Amino acid sequence: xxxxxxxxxxxxxxxxxxxxxxxxxxxxxxxxxxxxxxxxxxxxxxxxxxxxxxxxxxxxxxxxxxxxxxxxxxxxxxxxxxxxxxxxxxxxxxxxxxxxxxxxxxxxxxxxxxxx
Amino acid sequence: xxxxxxxxxxxxxxxxxxxxxxxxxxxxxxxxxxxxxxxxxxxxxxxxxxxxxxxxxxxxxxxxxxxxxxxxxxxxxxxxxxxxxxxxxxxxxxxxxxxxxxxxxxxxxxxx
Lengths: 116, 112
Fold this sequence. Notes:
The complex is a heterodimer of chains A (116) and B (112).
Chain A: E1 5-7, E2 10-13, E3 19-24, E4 31-37, E5 43-50, E6 53-56, E7 65-68, E8 75-79, E9 88-95, E10 106-107, E11 111-115
Parallel strand pairs in A: 2-11
Antiparallel strand pairs in A: 1-3, 3-8, 4-5, 4-9, 5-6, 7-8, 9-10, 9-11
Chain B: E1 4-7, E2 10-14, E3 19-25, E4 32-38, E5 45-51, E6 56-59, E7 62-67, E8 72-77, E9 86-92, E10 101-102, E11 106-111
Parallel strand pairs in B: 2-11
Antiparallel strand pairs in B: 1-3, 3-8, 4-5, 4-9, 6-7, 7-8, 9-10, 9-11
């Protein structure tokens, strides 16, 4: 049973470009969470999605950031017009259906975004 | 808003000694408290969790205690080993809410 998959593992973008980060949850999981981790800092909640629905995006910056979890395929975190301050590790986590967040979340390996 | 504070930010212990990391949370409705270990460049991994209906939980060398009245919970690692060196995060979440709020992390160094 494969764990949470994220790709790419490393992504380099120049200022103004778009970054697309992908997350495939564990098999059978329908809840996906995205977190951002700045260097030497903790994990900051960004967004919680279920299939085709954004449940809570209160941690997402209002501009340039968007997330989706389509019926088919991975969850996508998109950052438009990246700036240097977007450089961070982006982790996604998943949990099984029928769960609230109080069930265990399983983390992916992260995507390390570097904006030049 | 919800907040989780974690102390200390850095902790250095001698191999074999115990390590204690403390967290406080602001939202009294929180009822689930996981602890994650993150090694350098790797994903956070759950090491232990506790729910608000219990006060203490133990798993081999790791234990977690919860004081709901004071709104704080602690991680205890006994007989520390060099491979325990990592960053440890506490977290809190509540029913009906969808966010897990993480502490800022504690960098633990275990000296051989």
